[in-house]
């Protein structure tokens, strides 16, 4: 059928009601958001953001309500979609922005694609990877993997992807989203090593929309975390309290989930796998820890500073 591109959409969207089909690849995926309120009678108040791209650039796509339980898990990073009968809206200005792996990619930030059950009822098709043709010009998923030895030089809030062998995982903890509020964030701390430094990656992993992965992080698994943000305590000794925290677009993967993921082609991932082959499993097992209370960043030595 006659296709359009994201670039053409941006130029012509105001002058049309119906749009030609789109062929795009998912580059980023946000966690699922629940926006239900007691007084509003919505059956499935869910929303999820994706960043999708074709040869002309990248744009946000929003999946609404009952389409979320139906499609959210099938739309993975790297999935190619054919979209028909979608709506175009001006983009929501306050949403989080993932850092693209390809810094040269053009970003269309004024509008977003809206996928709904009606007005109009969107038709979504997933194109299997083996049927994707090179002449479609769809961009590959690119990553920003760093090694542990590179972490100390990165600025606060820098976005990166990491892979490591888990040596410690803490229990799940809760933090209030707002003071005196009823809602909590669920998170756990983990340490992962990659052989490039004596220090591990310290990872603050919030429960994303992947409970099956979050609950099964354990020592000796290969852990991949994407779209992580560097957190530095700039006040005291900056090098001692550097850690990484998940963002709204983070994805986490453990052993058993890596097959077929786009990052398996990345050079730093391949280097890490080579390093693990040189390690003795029994030696690493002796150094692993699970559970317990993990106070981080560590409180000051005396109460006056505290």
UniProtKB/TrEMBL annotation:
Gene from which this protein is expressed: Radx_1
GO terms, molecular function: single-stranded DNA binding
Matching Pfam families: RADX (PF17659)
Protein name as annotated: RADX protein
InterPro entries assigned: NA-bd_OB-fold, RADX
SUPFAM superfamilies, sorted: Nucleic acid-binding proteins
């Amino acid at each position: 059928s006659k296709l359009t591109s994201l670039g053409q959409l941006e130029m012509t969207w105001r002058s049309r009601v119906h749009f030609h089909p789109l062929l795009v690849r998912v580059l980023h995926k946000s966690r699922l958001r629940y926006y239900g309120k007691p007084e509003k009678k919505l059956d499935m108040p869910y929303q999820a953001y994706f960043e999708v791209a074709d040869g002309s650039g990248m744009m946000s796509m929003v999946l609404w309500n009952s389409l979320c339980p139906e499609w959210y898990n099938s739309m993975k990073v790297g999935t190619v979609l054919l979209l028909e009968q979608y709506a175009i809206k001006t983009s929501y200005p306050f949403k989080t922005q993932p850092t693209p792996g390809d810094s040269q990619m053009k970003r269309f930030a004024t509008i977003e694609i809206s996928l709904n059950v009606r007005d109009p009822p969107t038709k979504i098709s997933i194109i299997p990877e083996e049927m994707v043709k090179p002449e479609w010009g769809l961009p590959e998923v690119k990553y920003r993997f760093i090694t542990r030895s590179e972490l100390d030089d990165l600025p606060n809030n820098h976005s990166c992807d990491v892979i490591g062998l888990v040596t410690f995982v803490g229990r799940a903890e809760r933090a209030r989203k707002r003071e005196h509020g009823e809602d909590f964030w669920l998170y756990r701390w983990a340490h992962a090593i990659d052989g490039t430094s004596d220090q591990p990656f310290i990872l603050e992993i919030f429960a994303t929309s992947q409970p099956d992965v979050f609950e099964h992080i354990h020592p000796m698994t290969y852990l991949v975390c994407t779209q992580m943000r560097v957190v530095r305590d700039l006040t005291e000794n900056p090098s001692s309290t550097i850690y990484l925290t998940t963002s709204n677009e983070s994805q986490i993967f453990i052993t058993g989930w890596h097959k077929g993921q786009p990052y398996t082609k990345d050079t730093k991932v391949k280097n890490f796998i080579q390093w693990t082959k040189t390690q003795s499993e029994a030696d690493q097992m002796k150094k692993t820890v699970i559970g317990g209370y993990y106070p981080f960043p560590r409180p000051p030595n005396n109460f006056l500073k505290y």
